[in-house]
Design brief:
217 residues; four-stranded antiparallel sheet; signal; elongated; disulfide bond; Ig-like_fold; nine-stranded mixed sheet; 8% helix; 51% strand
């Protein structure tokens, strides 16, 4: 499969016209080298994901993004939801279905380099329903959901899910509002954060209470 992609990139690139910058540039050609970035990126559902791919080389590299679905590679510029801006893959209004592995190829007439990016999607759920942020309920970071002026209808079980293309992890916490406005909370579980299939890093969820505000992390 990799050889087929290399052949496709070479056939596509060989007929492309040289830019004026290429004509003025030095004659010593260089193989593309992708700048190292974090390999795992997490984005809230509904937001825009940006997966970087920046490479040095001469002539200037061309960028091609593929999605790896069980070894089957799909060229991403054929999908309207996706765009490539200066090498960065932009995915608008991400959903759980967009989670998974993406591969960037940086190619010029000398050769190519590639890099993998793993996209994870975060989702907050209350009583098995997606939480839609508003003026009271806010996602203040990758790990925090903040509820302003906690009300009785806010009571329930809150769950945070993290998805990739082959598995998910989740943690949940229960919030109850008693009479006289007293908030009673129970830490139900810890979250198993799956970094890869063979290794798990464990992070404990905490509940933070302050007057009329509730934060979960």
């Amino acid at each position: 499969m990799h050889r087929l992609i290399c052949l496709w990139l070479w056939m596509h690139f060989r007929d492309m016209p040289r830019s004026a910058d290429d004509k003025r540039a030095p004659s010593n050609n260089q193989l593309p080298r992708v700048i190292q970035e974090p390999s795992v990126w997490e984005v809230w559902e509904g937001k825009t994901a940006r997966l970087p791919c920046v490479a040095h080389g001469h002539p200037s590299p061309q960028y091609y993004w593929f999605r790896d679905t069980g070894g089957q590679l799909t060229l991403m510029d054929t999908v309207r939801k996706f765009s490539v801006v200066d090498g960065t893959l932009v995915i608008h209004k991400v959903s759980v279905a967009d989670s998974g592995k993406y591969i960037c190829f940086a190619n010029n007439s000398v050769g190519e380099d590639k890099v993998d990016r793993l996209l994870r999607i975060r989702v907050w759920v209350k009583d098995q329903r997606r939480i839609v942020p508003d003026h009271r309920i806010r996602r203040v970071s990758q790990t925090h959901l903040k509820i302003l002026v906690f009300q009785r209808e806010d009571s329930g079980i809150y769950q945070c899910y993290v998805y990739n293309d082959w598995e998910s992890s989740q943690a949940h916490v229960q919030l109850d509002l008693k009479a006289e406005g007293v908030i009673e909370s129970f830490l139900i579980a810890t979250i198993i954060w799956i970094m890869c299939k063979n290794k798990c890093d464990l992070y404990r969820h905490q509940l933070i209470l302050s007057s009329n505000n509730v934060s979960m992390s």
